Structures are given as C-alpha cells and as structure tokens.
Description:
Layout: E1 3-4, E2 7-8, H1 11-15, E3 26-31, E4 41-46, E5 51-56, E6 62-68, E7 71-72, E8 103-108, E9 115-117, E10 120-122, E11 134-143, E12 146-158, E13 164-174, E14 179-188, E15 194-195, E16 197-205, E17 214-217, E18 219-224, H2 227-230, E19 249-255, E20 262-269, E21 274-281, E22 287-294, E23 299-306, H3 313-319, E24 324-325, E25 330-341, H4 343-352
Antiparallel strand pairs: 1-2, 3-4, 4-5, 5-6, 6-7, 8-16, 9-10, 11-12, 12-13, 13-14, 14-25, 15-24, 16-23, 17-20, 18-19, 19-22, 20-21, 21-25, 22-23
Amino acid sequence: MPTLNGKQYSRRELEQRVGHLSQVAGVRMLELQDGPEAGVRIADVRSGSGLRFQVSLDRGMDISVAEYKGISLAWRSPNGDVHPGYYDPKGLGWLRSFPGGLVTGCGLTHVGAPCVDDGEELGLHGRLSHTPATHVETKTEWTDEQCTFGISGIVRENTLFTHNLVLHRTVEVELGSSIFTLRDTVVNEGFRQSPLMLLYHINLGWPLIDEGAELLLNATSMTPRDAEASKGVATATSIPAPVPGYKEQVFFHDLEPDSGGFASALLANKKLQLGLFVQYRQKELPKFTQWKMVGEGEYVLGMEPANCLVQGRAKERERGTLKILDPGEKCEFLLRIGILDGDAALDQFIQERNLR
C-alpha cells in the first residue's frame, strides 16, 4: 500500500478521500510555449511523496526539472529546455542547448569530447539529448494495492549507410515513493555493427549541493582526467561555496558493486538532512565519471554512470574499449534515482553500501 503523509492507505481508502488521484499524484502532459523552448513536450510527474520531475519528451526523454518537497534537485543552465531544432552538432555546439536538468542522456553512438573517428566528425556528447521520442505512452496502473506511474517511448539514432540504433525508454515511479527507475533497452536494428556509447549526465544543483555537502562512493580508485583535475584530488568529493574563476575538474572513479551487482553514489547534504542517490547495474555501466564545476552561476556536480569514459569515441576505439552492437543485438540498462530524507535514512544508506 502507498504511504502518503506518513500513513499507509489502501486503494479504496485513498479513493474515499480524493475526487481523483491527480489530487495527490500522477502524470500530466504539457507543452512549452515560449522562446527556444516552444513546442517541447513535457510529461510532468508527481509521486505523492513530494518528488516531482519532468520528462522532456522531445529531448531524448531526459529528466529535466526535478524537486523534492519544493527543494530543487537539479542544476539548470540559462538555455532551458531548448527545442531540438536549435541543436548545433559541431564541436562544442552541444553546450549551446544543454539545459542541465536532473538526467541528460549522452550517446547513442558517441559520448565525450569532439573527435574524428572512422572518418566521421563527432561533436560533444552525441545526439541523444536532441532527438524527439516517438510512440510515447503514459500509464497509471494499480496492481493489488500499489499504483505505478510510467512514461515510455522510443528514440532512434540512424544515419543512412551507417548506424540504426533504437532506444526504448521507460521511466516509472510508485505512488508515495521518492525513488524512480529508468529502464533503457538499446537495439541495433540495422544490418551493420554499430558503436554503442551511453552516459547518464546527472546534474545536481543548489541547494542540494552547497558548502559542506559531500559525494560519497565505495570506490577502489580515482583518476583525475587532466592536470587541472590533479590540483583538486585531495578535495575531489567535497563541495565548497561557489568559487570565482573555477575551472571544471573531472575524475574517473572505479566503484565497487554490491552483491546484487549494483554500484551506488550518493550526494549527501547534512545541513538539509537530504541526499540524492543513483544506483545502477555496473555490468552494463562499468565507468563512473564525476564532473565538478563549482564556479559562480555554474555551480553543479555531475554524477555520470556510463559504458565509456568522456574522452571521445576515437579514444575508446584506440584503447580497445569501444562497445560494439552486432545486428539484432540489444543491451539493457537500469538506473534507480532516489531521495533520502533525514539523517537516519542517510546514515542507513551510507552504512549498508559502505560509502565514504
């Protein structure tokens, strides 16, 4: 049975108290109307626990605005949820329409720095976040005494004579829960082998990140990306107040999965007594990148599970680590993103998963 306002309710008990379930939770379809955001379809989701998030249907089904009990969770860039028609695929043009948001998808055939691979010019982070979903469906489904809200759709990346990858995405949250799941299945529907690169760019912002907040991991090692990151190794997982003139630092962590094969990362804010965690199957997503950008106005922490690093497809191919999908082959990914409310919930999660 769902728990709402600290009490469990059966379906019948809840229906006795509301005119419609949308009084406390549900999925509502919207369309943005102003400026570069005009025409972008949004699925606005409320779980009834205080968790609210928006799925940007024309942006690869990214998770855009997100909040918990009125507290913002995600960093938002000045760009907003830019319509994909404004996408600039060359070089660093991706940044002109990067909205931030809770989860931005990077891929499907390229992630990371611009490069040239196998004769193909590739811009930053690929096309996934700028591709509209088709066959979008929503559901409100009771099973026994539990209600689940869901949004599903298909995102295709194809180029004549090269790639034909299809992403099937489902986002689900249970009534009264502060945890949502993101299930992705990528299928090679073409007749040629295709690279598969996928990264979940999870962007946390103020007030969740603030001076004194910490990124907690069960990591066996950490590697700075470059000389700039090497300067911040000692304080990599600590969040300071905004720093004038800060230059981004990127770290690669090797996380230790639990007995079920899931790796965990937690941003803990003890001042707010609040945390946000991500759990994911490490078998399909063996890499974890931390993006630390704590400059003025660009005050964001990125938690980025992926099947690759962020140095571009050419580097992955050179290292022999580039994931290749054969014709007809598929790969499945599963993430859980959730909120921990209160010191007791934070301490229990940290202890059970040996985070530090």
